[in-house]
Amino acid sequence: MLKLQHQVQAYHKLLPRLYVWLFLASVFFTVGFSLGSRRNLTLGIALTSAILLEWMRLHGSDQVFRIRRRHSPQALEGDTVTVELEIENLSARPLHLIGITDRFAAGGGRRVRGVIRELLPRCLARFHFRQICDFRRGLFVLGPVQLSLADEVGLIEKVYSVPVFTDLLVCPKPVPAFSLKLLAEGTAKDIGSEVIALRGRSEEFAGVRQYREGDAWRTIHWPTTARTSFLHVKEFDRNVVTQVTVFIDMFETGHAGLGAMTSFEQRLRVAGTLALTAVEKNHLVRLVGAQTPPVFTTLGGGTRHLQVLLQWLALRAPRGRGCMNDVLLDQMPLIRRGSTLALVLSSTNLVLAALEQIIAVLRLKNVETIAVVVEDRSYHKLRPDQTELFAETPGLEEIVTRLRLAGARTYTLERRTDVVEGLRDYGERRGTFR
Fold first, then answer.
1. Taking the CB of the first residue and of the last residue of the chain, which one, N or C, has fewer CB atoms within 10 A?
2. Nearest 5 degrees, angle CA 433-CA 400-CA 182?
């Protein structure tokens, strides 16, 4: 990321040593006038003159800077970002002991300070620092940059505020979960999803059928043709790629918790983990955000598409009041037969009976359903109506039981549950597999 700015605002800052000099000057003047001591008066005048000269020298010197900030435009939560500041002195005088202060918003707005010992005229210097994106996900603006120049005595400091701003997008960090049994391994490299065996062309021989107009002559199976006196061709198994669709509850009614520890943020982390798992296992993946209005991504696979999905998740916020069931019903015609559907649910913002019916209908389409229930009741309440909502909603154990009976592989996550551990099958948690 690179941005240039040239407009500089300057102001003066009085340093503690100045107050000491002013105090001494006032003492010398007081003693000189009261005792008639020319020596004390001279010292007072000398101190006052030195202060005025330093003030005038700093006030009259207009420095011209050009600053560039470079860093990666995107990072994950918890990543360390390297930032480079390139400061160019466009004035005709050398500068010494330049103080630098930069603001790193992705770290909670912390300020980073440093010093450049010397900067010659028409020359540039580089200042590097590294910071951790430990605040939260989202789009952050870094800057402005402050440069401070003190006089040679250390009485007054002139601060230049340079409006250099750059954007840093911090995405939710998906948890590598390749060992989990959430999705089967895709058979088609770099694209796959769950695979349906259809007749077509590939390397696996499937059988023989009668010749149809348009079949390639090189596929003719001559032994069968000679035996039956009719043209027959060879058939092969073809791997047909289906879809992995992840639905995420993004309604405000399913949002509980404070700061970065919210049920909404947990659902986004789960969605990122599911997307990463699908890409790692050669699946196509698409995300759907259930909110008002619903938001969607395109269907794709590979690392580039994963990066797009993480950017999409980084900019999401809870919106509207509603339930995922309505969005799911609208999207059902787009869910292909034989694909996988992952539901990242709120435990308190769902109509369980309607969801059971939807899962049952999807089973008829040979759609495998995965349900991840984030327990909102393990987070702090945000609104007064959540007390009643939390009490009226079925308990977590009942939700899990009913979703499993409906045919969905179900997992649960609470406030401090590790994402990978929560998405692990119960047999795996005990050290055995189902």
1. C
2. 40
